[in-house]
């Protein structure tokens, strides 16, 4: 049987189930990735489970999100994470080393391996011929303890690349083209696999750009072949001996097909406030801008900064604009300094920031009120930048650099200059990027600051209950809207009681107080439309509302990672059988749930009644036997305790 590359990766790691789309499969996980916004919970969960050392081939803890140390909280958590890494046998990347995804690619990523990360953009390392997936923190905890990762077997969409990118068009435009065609739901339940003659025209970091934003399509993973380009990349990192070839067999087929002629692409841009709101740059050219931001895991490569440097070299950015440079790793920053690119950017008026996620997660560099910000980041969900009513566009480094010179959104092809040619370094320094854990952890104690609290205990869902609808929301509600990131919120990532005060604040300022009043009176539920929970993998977006008494989420459909996070924390996820029934329920309606334990175990479809009326709503779930056990136990932590 001829297999595509994704199927080969799954087959090599399959522990249970069959490779039939929609069937639950269990996968062996070789590597894990955690970052500081989610890793503190993972480390607390490892401690609670009594794990001595992780059982993966390689696990790494990165500090890249919460870098602003305006008080003790982030600094304390950095110390805690380092002590936990030493105690549990995990590589540690200290603050300033850079964003987890490119650093992992540089230091640990290996073709043919599986990678599970508590960050939705973990899929970026699919550029290396890996099966790389984002998940909630507790799923990553389980994988680190040696348990399989369970996921429904995705369909595989084969995307054949032909041609070669023209001048002024780069890898960011490739993934924006996919979003233009398929939208933010286009990859749900799928692995995106790129193949064809156009692949060899893309560098390893170009592939990282494309794989990274597979998350914005809702894809389970993105897979590129491991070819001579990946071998070359590993050679620049001093790891050429770790290369293996991985590609689809001749004659291998795909569940779905797509084709992109790279030579036919033009500069694209995603308008506020969705990565799927993509148009040609020419369509919005001339709109004033306040900020151009270059960096993030969605444009992390040497050439992404070098091209911007060459575009602004010898020039000055427009008055009234800000050019924000966010290096993605210390390794890249060293080379950019050595080759004069940082000097070019500073001379043009750029602002330099430390290597890390920074403004991408709302950790600094928030734009001014009512002003347009052009960013090479992966997301522009409402308020994610740190400015509540922001206006963020997603674009390539070429478009961002061209626009900051003119002060308006500019198609880079209209600049009066030749397209710069960038020469990539042939070697990079790898010294000190990851701290290796000690072999003997017997004397290691966890360093816990006063902001680190224990995970609250949660009771299982009752058999009979009535709950009011506290929120009725529209389509594409992101985890940033459920629980914001940024410097106000993320320092409380290990303090569930405090972080819950920010839940749903972008949607309803009164949610926290209303939910707290209702919590002791039976809890509540929320209703939404399509693609509920898109975006970040942060499990706090399920955990905080759960602490506030959220019992049921009823929507038209869910984003994959958030759905699993709801199950993991004992929240019942349901969908409408008839999508038009969404219009029949109103905020503050009360729904009656009766004999729910038996019902969800015996029926995938059932009716719930609107209290005080004769009307019923047909709902359904797609939970496996394992999901049901976790849910009825009150969440995965209770489920684990029951099994011990």
3D structure, described in words:
The protein is an alpha/beta fold and 644 residues long. Helix content is 29%, strand content 18%. The protein has 21 helices and 26 strands. The longest helix has 17 residues, at 72-88. The radius of gyration is 24 Å and the shape is globular. It starts with a helix and ends with a helix.
Please describe the topology of this protein.
Layout: H1 5-13, E1 14-16, E2 24-27, E3 31-35, H2 36-49, E4 58-62, H3 72-88, E5 91-93, H4 100-107, E6 114-117, E7 131-134, H5 137-144, E8 149-152, E9 155-162, H6 171-182, E10 190-195, H7 204-212, E11 221-223, H8 228-236, E12 256-261, E13 268-270, E14 278-280, H9 281-284, E15 291-295, H10 302-312, E16 322-326, H11 330-338, H12 341-348, E17 351-352, E18 372-375, E19 391-394, H13 397-406, E20 465-472, H14 479-482, H15 496-499, H16 511-519, E21 524-527, H17 540-547, E22 550-555, H18 560-568, E23 572-576, E24 590-593, H19 596-602, E25 605-610, E26 616-620, H20 625-633, H21 636-643
Parallel strand pairs: 3-4, 3-6, 4-5, 6-7, 9-10, 9-12, 10-11, 15-16, 15-18, 16-17, 18-19, 20-21, 21-22, 22-23
Antiparallel strand pairs: 1-2, 2-8, 13-14, 20-24, 23-26, 24-25, 25-26
């Amino acid at each position: 049987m001829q297999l595509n590359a994704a199927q080969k990766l799954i087959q090599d790691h399959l522990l249970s189930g069959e490779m039939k789309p929609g069937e639950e499969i269990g996968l062996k996980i070789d590597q894990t990735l955690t970052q500081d916004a989610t890793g503190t919970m993972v480390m607390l969960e490892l401690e609670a489970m009594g794990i001595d050392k992780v059982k993966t081939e390689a696990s790494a803890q990165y500090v890249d999100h919460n870098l602003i140390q305006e008080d003790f909280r982030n600094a304390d958590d950095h110390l805690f994470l380092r002590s936990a890494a030493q105690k549990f046998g995990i590589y540690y990347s200290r603050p300033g080393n850079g964003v987890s995804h490119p650093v992992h690619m540089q230091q640990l990523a290996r073709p043919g391996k599986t990678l599970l990360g508590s960050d939705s953009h973990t899929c970026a390392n699919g550029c290396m011929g890996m099966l790389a997936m984002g998940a909630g923190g507790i799923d990553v905890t389980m994988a680190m303890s040696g348990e399989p990762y369970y996921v429904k077997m995705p369909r595989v969409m084969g995307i054949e690349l032909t041609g070669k990118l023209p001048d002024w068009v780069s890898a960011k435009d490739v993934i924006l083209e996919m979003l233009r065609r398929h939208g933010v739901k286009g990859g749900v339940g799928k692995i995106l696999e790129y193949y064809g003659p156009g692949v060899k025209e893309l560098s390893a970091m170009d592939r990282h750009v494309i794989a990274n934003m597979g998350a914005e399509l809702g894809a389970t993973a993105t897979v590129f072949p491991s070819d001579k380009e990946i071998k070359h990349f590993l050679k620049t990192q001093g790891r050429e001996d770790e290369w293996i070839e991985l590609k689809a067999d001749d004659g291998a087929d795909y569940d779905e097909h797509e084709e992109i002629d790279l030579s036919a692409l033009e500069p694209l841009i995603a308008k506020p406030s969705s990565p799927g709101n993509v148009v040609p740059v020419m369509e919005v050219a001339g709109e004033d801008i306040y900020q151009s931001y270059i960096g993030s895991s969605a444009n992390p490569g040497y050439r992404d900064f070098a091209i911007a440097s060459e575009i602004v070299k010898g020039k000055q950015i427009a008055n009234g604009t800000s050019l924000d440079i966010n290096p993605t790793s210390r390794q890249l920053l060293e080379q950019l300094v050595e080759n004069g690119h940082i000097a070019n950017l500073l001379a043009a008026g750029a602002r330099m920031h430390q290597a890390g996620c920074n403004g991408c997660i709302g950790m600094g560099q928030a734009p001014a009120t009512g002003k347009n910000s052009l960013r090479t980041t992966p997301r522009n969900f409402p308020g994610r930048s740190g400015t509540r009513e922001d206006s963020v566009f997603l674009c390539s480094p070429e478009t961002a650099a061209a626009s900051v010179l003119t002060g308006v959104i500019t198609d880079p092809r209209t600049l009066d200059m030749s397209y710069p040619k960038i020469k990539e370094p042939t070697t990079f320094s790898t010294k000190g990027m990851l701290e290796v854990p000690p072999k003997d952890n017997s004397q290691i104690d966890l360093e816990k600051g006063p902001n680190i609290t224990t995970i609250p205990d949660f009771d299982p869902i009752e058999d009979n209950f009535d709950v009011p609808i506290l929120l009725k929301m529209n389509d594409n509600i992101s985890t940033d809207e459920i629980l914001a990131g940024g410097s106000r919120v993320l320092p409380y990532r290990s303090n569930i009681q405090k972080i819950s005060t920010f839940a749903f604040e972008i949607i309803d300022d009164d949610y926290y107080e209303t939910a707290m009043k209702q919590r002791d009176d039976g809890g509540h539920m929320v209703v939404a439309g399509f693609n509920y929970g898109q975006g970040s993998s942060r499990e706090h977006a399920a955990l905080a509302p759960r602490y506030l008494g959220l019992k049921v989420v009823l929507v038209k459909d869910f984003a994959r990672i958030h759905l699993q996070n709801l199950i993991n924390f004992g929240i019942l996820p349901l969908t409408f059988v008839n999508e038009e029934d969404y219009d029949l329920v109103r905020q503050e309606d009360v729904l009656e749930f009766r004999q729910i334990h038996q019902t969800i175990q015996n029926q995938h479809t059932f009716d719930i009644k609107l209290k005080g009326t004769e009307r019923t709503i047909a709902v359904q779930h797609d939970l496996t036997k394992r999901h049901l056990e976790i849910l009825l136990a009150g969440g995965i932590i209770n489920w684990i305790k029951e099994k011990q």
